[in-house]
């Protein structure tokens, strides 16, 4: 296990609410680290609908979801938040008053005074393809994300999918793999046209293979896949030799380990909070954004931003119990403007 990373606040989820929390906490001198299971910053906005138009951000008549994420990243730049992507929080335990120890599936340990859950509808989980027995290979030769590219160096890699993730990793891993095959059920793609063009160019140069079909079975032993049996549209089968299989079938949202953290849940899916600070039933653990519930709750980004502002006021009392908090406006406070680098 790694040495504990110490911070004032650990934010679980790097979507818009998690990002804006960095800003509000930073104004009050609280440092934050963020953990997110995705490989990019922005949560649902970045992963599910980056080009989706958003019309209800106050003062912004129109922006794309990715545009909102980019603007938030620019806004929080003065506070130097650190991101830990492709990490899922596994456990949270109280070790002081206030002090929490938080561990991730990647072996990282955080020690923080405050935990803020901003995980949207839960953590994003990869969709498992309907291949019999695939569970036996997961984590050893079947992977739903790429954490270290070099782990695939010199291997025969089979990538399944037709979206951006499948195409991006095809292009990134092609130079490392001893042989790479992209498998998709049809010749049309959901990925960016430029990525498709680059992939087809590699096919034309004989550097990778692109084949049509669907994996119907896997063969191997002791967690190591050796062969994928592929079914064509006409019902015939053929096999592809591979050492590593990367299926990219999209993501689904699940509550994940949150259910094991000792936090009260509503209907097994949402986290009830009080509305003065959006604190859960566990003192020092807050929930903001789509994952929380209270009477009258609306799942709007602007509502999540409101929750962030109030949460930060209560968080300050935990992080700085002996420090009086004087409410200030960024428009008139020279000290806040200094933190933002605007004076």
Q: How far apart lie the N and C ends? A: 43 Å
How many DSSP E strands?
20
Shape: elongated
Percent helix, as a range, is: 10-25%
Poorly predicted parts:
none
Structural class, by secondary structure, is alpha/beta
Sketch the major β-sheet.
7 strands, mixed
Over all CA atoms, what is the radius of gyration? 23 Å
Number of helices: 7
Strand content: 25-35%
N-to-C SSE series? EHEHEEHEEEEEEHEHEEEEEEEEEHH
Average of pLDDT = 92
Characteristic key phrases:
alpha/beta, 7-stranded mixed sheet, 7 helices, 20 strands
Per-chain topology:
Elements: E1 5-12, H1 16-27, E2 32-36, H2 43-47, E3 53-54, E4 63-64, H3 65-76, E5 82-85, E6 89-96, E7 99-104, E8 109-117, E9 123-126, E10 156-160, H4 164-173, E11 179-184, H5 193-204, E12 209-212, E13 214-221, E14 224-231, E15 237-241, E16 244-247, E17 251-254, E18 271-272, E19 285-287, E20 292-293, H6 301-319, H7 334-340
Parallel strand pairs: 1-2, 1-8, 2-5, 8-19, 10-11, 10-16, 11-12, 18-20
Antiparallel strand pairs: 3-4, 6-7, 7-8, 9-17, 13-14, 14-15
